[in-house]
Amino acid sequence: MATFDFSQLEARERYKLLCAAVIPRPVAWITTLNAEGGVNAAPFSFFNVFADEPPLLIVGIGRRPESGPKDTVLNAEREGAFTVNLADTALAEKMVATAADFPPEIGEAEAVGLAVADGVTQKIPYLKDAPVVLECSVYEIRYLDVDRALLMGKVSALIARDGLFDLDTRRLNVPHWDPVARLFATSYAPLGEAYSLPIPDWRTITGPKETSE
Ligand SMILES: Cc1cc2nc3c(=O)[nH]c(=O)nc-3n(C[C@H](O)[C@H](O)[C@H](O)COP(=O)(O)O)c2cc1C
């Protein structure tokens, strides 16, 4: 086995190892409002859901290349809200294009040709073509240092493309969902084939206990 002792590694090496080890990661394509009212959009793969009550998701946001917090965290802090758009494979190229280091006053959504719709439970617009959208109010922003933060959102609504969720059972129609997952560096992957694996009753695993006379 190879052991990488994190106390002996540069931050960049730790980043590369973590990014490659924890895959596939979902991508939160976050829309926020910039100070001029334009729609800022940027992808973040240090992301997942962490609780259902309250319904919380968390995003790890690093620093801008030249230092300072990224626009997404500053916008979310100012507006008290942000929206997570989930991209499918068809949107992957545009999603990655919004990661370019645009100046804060340029709205990436318009710059890369993405249509937006008015938010339903938040004033933040969402990306019209995104198959799934999670509108959030800011629950907490935990700064790890001056310009790295954990952005926590409390989900106030899930908006989904027609046919993706069964309206009665709330179950996902898996073949209709083609999410894009981040691997590392410039590599991405589709979902792959789903299979079912029910949790067995523990008694079927341990078998009958042996008795001694
Ligand atoms: C697929 C993908 C995932 C990314 N994930 C993260 C992430 O988890 N955290 C982060 O700080 N930056 C991440 N980035 C980089 C940001 O998207 C990029 O810095 C962006 O310009 C930030 O925009 P903003 O300043 O408008 O917030 C990612 C980029 C890509 C292409």
UniProtKB/TrEMBL annotation:
<comment type="similarity">
    <text>Belongs to the flavoredoxin family.</text>
</comment>
<dbReference type="InterPro" id="IPR012349">
    <property type="entry name" value="Split_barrel_FMN-bd"/>
</dbReference>
<dbReference type="GO" id="GO:0016646">
    <property type="term" value="F:oxidoreductase activity, acting on the CH-NH group of donors, NAD or NADP as acceptor"/>
</dbReference>
<keyword id="KW-0288">FMN</keyword>
<keyword id="KW-0285">Flavoprotein</keyword>
<dbReference type="Pfam" id="PF01613">
    <property type="entry name" value="Flavin_Reduct"/>
</dbReference>
<dbReference type="InterPro" id="IPR002563">
    <property type="entry name" value="Flavin_Rdtase-like_dom"/>
</dbReference>
<feature type="domain" description="Flavin reductase like">
    <location>
        <begin position="20"/>
        <end position="174"/>
    </location>
</feature>
<protein>
    <submittedName>
        <fullName>Flavin reductase family protein</fullName>
    </submittedName>
</protein>
<dbReference type="GO" id="GO:0010181">
    <property type="term" value="F:FMN binding"/>
</dbReference>
